Amino acid sequence: MAQDSATTQPAPVTRQLARYLVESNGRDLPADVIHEASRGLLNWLGCALGAASHDTVAIAVRSFAPFFGPAQAQVLGRPERADILHAALINGISSHVLDYDDTHFRAVHPSAPVLPAVLALAEWRRFSGAQLVHAYVLGVEAEIRIGLSVFPEHYDRGWHITGTAGVFGAAAATSKLLGLDEEKTAWALGIAATQSSGLREMFGSMCKSFHPGHAAQNGLGAALLAEQGFTSSDRALEAPRGFGHVLSSRFDPETITQGLGGSYELLRNMYKPYACGLVMHAVIDACLQLRREHSLTAERIATIQATVSPLVTELTAKPAPGTGLEGKFSVYHALAAAIIHGAAGEAQFSTEAVRDPRAIVLREQVSIVVEPTMRKLEGKVRIELRDGTVLERHVEHALGTLEHPMSDADLEDKFRALVQDTLPPGRVAELIDACWNVFQLEDAGVVARLAASTP
After folding, report:
1. Beta pairing, strands 366-370 & 301-308
2. How far is Cα 252 from Cα 156, in angstroms, rounded to an integer?
3. What is the pLDDT of residue 455?
4. Which residues contact 183 (CB under 8 A, 6 or more apart)?
5. pLDDT by residue (tens digit) across 125-142?
6. 372-378 contacts, C-beta under 8 A, 24 or more apart
7. Which of 315, 160, 163, 151 is CA-nearest to residue 249?
8. CA-CA 20 to 30 A from 297: which of 40, 134, 190, 321?
9. What percent of the chain has pLDDT over 90?
């Protein structure tokens, strides 16, 4: 790792990260990283478009539209254009509100805070697809490493790490696009640090998706301020009263800098086949498999018992959700929906589906057993039928995990299902092609403009 010129001691962590971001060359990106960036873009864009008319997004647009500035960037899946800061906010909200977006295998939802910022900036100042991909990859690298430096204690305290770490990803990525030098990039990270926020108490409400939207907006704003010479501490990450030590009692600064450039966190990304918390996916898989193999109906079932990791009950223990957003954090509803509908997409987590009398009855027949030694993405299901038959299934690796990933074709199918009510078929095909070939685009803003809807 680079040293300060006047000393043999390593540069402060914030400066080391800034130096890496500045010196990174897009021509050095491996082919598999570029392809993963296309996968991430396609998945993220589908989630944003699929939520374009969601109440959460509609309320945000209605609240802020009177304050939109120049029409610099597209609000995805909608007719409105906005200034880049508001576009980043709204598109960050829409990409996360379905809880269908990507998840790093350890912690953060990586794309929702980063891509809204870089796409808005790329559309306004006309950056190439290669520049956008490079910035996206670096933004994910920064946010994941910073997030892991305080994980899991930071998360256990109640911080929503997608918001708290995501602001750094947006700042890092947009600083790269703007071509900031090391000092200004360090300032941008510091401006991001002082805005880091997000509480887990908000899970199940509209505020959860506000976190990555706010992170995208604030990270982009941090880079724009730094570009003009707005200063901050250049030790914002590691200082005694900086991000790491204030927001965690177990801050590990080496996680941020060790091996920088030797690997890419984007390659540890996972994509959701189901529109809810990833920790429930294994038991959803188990229910879907048993339903398909035994032609199960809700009426035949006496009890459903799920054995899960402690994190499942910590995050998704709402036994009687009243809204679709609450349903995404109810393992009880997830299992009932899987049996009733044979699916766990966005439709199965709508408010209508959550309030379906069949779901309410079946949720009451679900019980949860916590197994402390079980991994968070593993699960077992035991279904007892009314005739006494017992069916069991153990899923070690849910669909969408690194061990059982969604294919490119799976992601395309997910994209089409999400956007079918938002865009015409011809445009859908164009967008899919643009995502797979984003690295070759002369103007990355094409992606955003293709994602506009007509009034």
Report:
1. parallel
2. 16
3. 64
4. 18, 234
5. 999 999 999 999 999 999
6. 372/309, 372/310, 374/307, 374/308, 374/309, 375/309, 376/279, 376/309, 376/311, 376/312, 377/278, 377/279, 377/281, 377/282, 377/401, 378/282, 378/309
7. 151
8. 321
9. 96
**Distance of alpha carbon 23 from alpha carbon 406, whole angstroms:** 33
- Specify the DSSP element, H or E, that contains 220: helix 207-227
Dump strand ranges (E) for 168-259: none
Pair of tokens at residue 407 = 């294919």
Assign 441 to helix, strand or coil.
Answer: coil
Other C-beta atoms lying within 10 Å of the C-beta of residue 68? 18
The span from the CA of 14 to the CA of 130, in Å, is 26
The alpha-carbon radius of gyration of the chain (Å, integer) is 22
DSSP calls for 105-132? SSS---HHHHHHHHHHHHHHHT--HHHH
Looking at the DSSP assignment, which residues form a beta bridge with residue 368?
306
Q: Which residue pairs from 121-125 have beta carbons closer than 8 angstroms and sit at least 24 positions apart in sequence?
A: 121/73, 121/84, 121/174, 121/177, 121/178, 121/220, 122/177, 122/444, 122/445, 122/448, 123/72, 123/73, 123/74, 123/84, 123/444, 123/445, 123/448, 123/449, 124/72, 124/73, 124/84, 124/445, 125/177
Encoded tokens for 262? 């030797």
Cα–Cα dist 174/186, whole Å = 13
Instruction: For the chain, give the longest Cα–Cα distance.
Output: 79
Sequential DSSP letters for 285-329: HHHHHHHHHHT--GGGEEEEEEEE-HHHHHHHB-SS--SHHHHTT
> pLDDT tens, 289-346?
999 999 999 999 999 999 999 999 999 999 999 999 999 999 999 999 999 999 999 9
Tokens 């009855």, residue?
361
| Number of helices (H), then strands (E), in the chain | 21, 8
Say how far apart CA 23 and CA 41 lie, in whole Å: 24
Domains present along the chain, CATH in parentheses: 13-271+426-450 (1.10.4100.10), 278-395 (3.30.1330.120)
d(C-alpha 210, C-alpha 160), whole Å: 11
Q: How many Cβ atoms sit within 10 Å of the Cβ of residue 25?
A: 7
Kindly provide the b/e burial profile for residues 30-66, where b requires at least 16 CB atoms within 10 angstroms of the residue's own CB.
Answer: eeebbebbbbbbbbbbbbbbbbbebebbeebbeeeee
